[in-house]
């Protein structure tokens, strides 16, 4: 190799070897997931809307347990055929004025059951607050991990692009002095174009993730967002049995579903009570100048004589509603059990892959690239072999962060399924890997 090429190549080799172990991130403003989570819980409109729905639901039980509003009536009677009130009072002995109070009293137990139905709806709405919180929190975390992965991918691609341009310069220099072939130059140029295209795609993905984060935080979707802080692998759960037995039973979806089953059970009990008559009472006071004061008290029953076409169908409807609520609850239980199992398996697989990448694949690829660079320098290997090793290392560096994002996302989805933070106590890869 010509002396000037050796100098250039040695400089590139030193830069490459310095680049391979890890890249110290530039000192720039970053935003952590904890900061975004605190803002989400304060500002997310979905959570606020669900809290308002619960507040509204809490106001219903008292209404449903209270007697129907009474009816107060003014009564004017004329015996002369003149309908105008007061005009015959004192002239016609049959004319009088009075006031009537009417009150409907449902059969005992109906108001209590109606109030219990409303209370169960409020309990379901309360559980839905937790469900919505964990849903939007999960959405935020997933968007953040995508944001982080895109950011790291862009960083890796840009650094790789700069180094690949140096490789292209070396291959062009060797070709110009007859020590290389044009194919090496063209292949390097093709790979440079591919990396530029991938950088553009990754920037679009990062912008999309940033817009989703801003949306969840109730910010303008095109507002600025600092780069993400570093993410390290979270330890995993110790036993899936603990999740299935203890956490799934307390999941917000399950609590909401159980409250709705209880509501429909009260609804069925209330529908059966509709066979019972309601009571009607009224008290009337009348005054006539020609007679003593008059009092009239009435007592009546609202008789369900059309029970075959009304109350019977009400019971049938309530029965189907109860069956539907029970089936929906069972479906949610199965869905959560599957989600726990699925995400748990994903976490385990990601842990193994992260460990494999950090402890075996990436160090081995580093050594392979260093070896090919050394042999290429002395002319014992071709450029395409060195380029292939370089691109393989690039792919697995990006794969590491893709798997890291997948690992954290699976944990996030597991927490959404059970509706609480998942306590982790199994050691994993031990830190972020930049190789």
Protein architecture, described:
The structure is a single chain. Helix content is 65%, strand content 10%. By secondary structure, it is an alpha+beta fold. It has one domain: Outer membrane efflux proteins (OEP) (Up-down Bundle), CATH 1.20.1600.10. A hairpin with a 2-residue loop joins strand 5 and strand 6. The relative contact order is 0.14. The C terminus is likely disordered.
Write the layout of secondary structure elements.
Elements: H1 3-19, E1 30-31, H2 33-43, H3 45-58, H4 60-65, E2 71-77, E3 96-105, H5 110-176, H6 182-216, E4 227-228, H7 240-247, H8 252-273, E5 278-288, E6 291-302, H9 311-377, H10 383-418
Helix pairs in contact: 1-5, 1-9, 2-5, 3-5, 5-6, 5-8, 5-10, 8-9, 9-10
């Amino acid at each position: 190799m010509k002396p000037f090429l050796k100098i250039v190549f040695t400089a590139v080799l030193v830069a490459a070897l310095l680049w391979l172990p890890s890249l110290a991130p530039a000192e720039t403003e970053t935003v952590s997931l904890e900061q975004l989570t605190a803002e989400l819980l304060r500002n997310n409109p979905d959570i606020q809307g669900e809290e308002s729905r619960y507040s509204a639901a809490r106001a219903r039980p008292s209404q449903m347990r209270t007697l129907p509003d009474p009816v107060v009536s003014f009564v004017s009677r004329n015996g002369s055929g003149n309908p105008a009130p007061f005009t015959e009072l004192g002239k016609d002995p049959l004319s009088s004025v009075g006031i009537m109070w009417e009150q409907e009293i449902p059969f005992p137990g109906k108001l209590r059951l109606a109030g219990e139905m409303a209370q169960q709806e409020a309990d379901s709405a309360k559980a839905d607050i937790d469900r919505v919180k964990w849903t939007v929190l999960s959405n935020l975390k997933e968007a953040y991990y995508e944001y982080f992965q895109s950011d790291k991918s862009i960083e890796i691609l840009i650094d790789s692009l700069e180094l690949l341009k140096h490789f292209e310069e070396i291959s062009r220099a060797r070709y110009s002095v007859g020590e290389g072939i044009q194919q090496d130059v063209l292949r390097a140029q093709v790979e440079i174009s591919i990396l530029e295209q991938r950088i553009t795609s990754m920037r679009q993905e990062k912008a999309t993730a940033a817009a989703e984060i801003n949306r969840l935080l109730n910010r303008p979707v095109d507002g600025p967002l600092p780069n993400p802080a570093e993410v390290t692998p979270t330890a995993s759960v110790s036993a899936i049995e603990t999740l299935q037995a203890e956490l799934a039973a307390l999941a917000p979806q399950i609590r909401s579903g159980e409250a709705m089953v209880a509501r429909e059970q009260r609804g069925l009990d209330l529908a059966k009570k509709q066979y019972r008559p309601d009571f009607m009472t009224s008290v009337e006071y009348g005054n006539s100048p020609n007679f003593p004061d008059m009092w009239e008290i009435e007592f009546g029953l609202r008789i369900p004589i059309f029970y075959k076409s009304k109350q019977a169908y009400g019971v049938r409807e309530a029965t189907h509603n109860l069956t539907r609520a029970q089936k929906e609850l069972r479906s949610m239980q199965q869905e959560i059990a599957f989600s726990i199992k699925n995400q748990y398996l994903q976490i385990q697989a990601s842990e193994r892959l992260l460990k494999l990448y950090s402890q075996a694949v990436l160090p081995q690829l580093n050594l392979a690239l260093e070896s090919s660079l050394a042999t290429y320098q002395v002319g014992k290997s071709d450029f395409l072999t060195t380029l292939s090793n370089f691109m393989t290392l690039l792919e697995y560096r990006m794969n590491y962060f893709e798997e890291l994002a997948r690992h954290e996302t699976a944990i996030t989805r597991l927490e959404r399924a059970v509706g609480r933070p998942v306590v982790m106590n199994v050691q994993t890869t031990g830190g972020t890997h930049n190789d």
